[in-house]
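Figure-free illustration: sequence to structure, shown twice.
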Amino acid sequence: MNTTVDLSTPGVPVVALDGELDASNYRALIALGQQLYADGARRLVLDMSALSYMASSGIVALHSLALVFGGHEPPDPEAGWQAIHEVSTDVAQGGPVDHLRLVSPGPAVARTLERTGLTGMLPVFESREAALAG
């Protein structure tokens, strides 16, 4: 997966994801989010329009980013199924968050988001402009 970071909107970086988000790269995405948060960003927009596939580790990455941008510590990536359990617990107990916004996930990725319940937790927008404006 390739990532491109757009910092043109102050305080709200837009990270474009291209390729596949899976076990080989999800930690790098979490680390990027942690760095952006450490640099002062308090909202994050993920442009998923060029993301062709997202594995369960991608779900862990999105959940971790939601926690980071909410001011919390993400689960330990080494926790394995415990990290997945935390996602399902937070989805079941929590409402929508405003500090992590998703843009234009393709059909396969959108199905994964819907099946895991993340669409009830993470707002999805049709364009970067809409995600940045809201």
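We now fold a second protein in the same way, so the two outputs can be compared directly.
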Amino acid sequence: MSKEVEAELLAVNQQLLDAIAQGDWGTYSELCDPTLTAIEPEALGHLVQGMEFHSFYFKLSGGQVKPQNSMRDVHIRILGDVAVVAYYRLTQYVDGDGHPGTRGTEETRIWQRQNGRWQHVHFHRSPSQKT
């Protein structure tokens, strides 16, 4: 695997996580294919299709301190014009009482090269089982 492609995927994935943390719908929707699919805890076991479900959460982001995301134990697999990026995501945040905290999720994100750029087409996110 090319180190350049790996670095590009890490950067675009971090850009996506930063857009989520900042509530930046413009960047998020630019990085995601309109037919994005997802399996995530908020969907209560259902497959989410499209962007509407996700836009609800972006509308909620108010003036609170924005979280910071980082990726750990990253594994990238390139399959032609498709890439699988799997990692453990640490989210540092400040709760409503001003107390800092950290939570973790296990994530797999699928990227597809479309028209010369990577587009996010699917993800699976699970709450951490680590204690």
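Summary for the second example: The chain has a mean pLDDT of 91.
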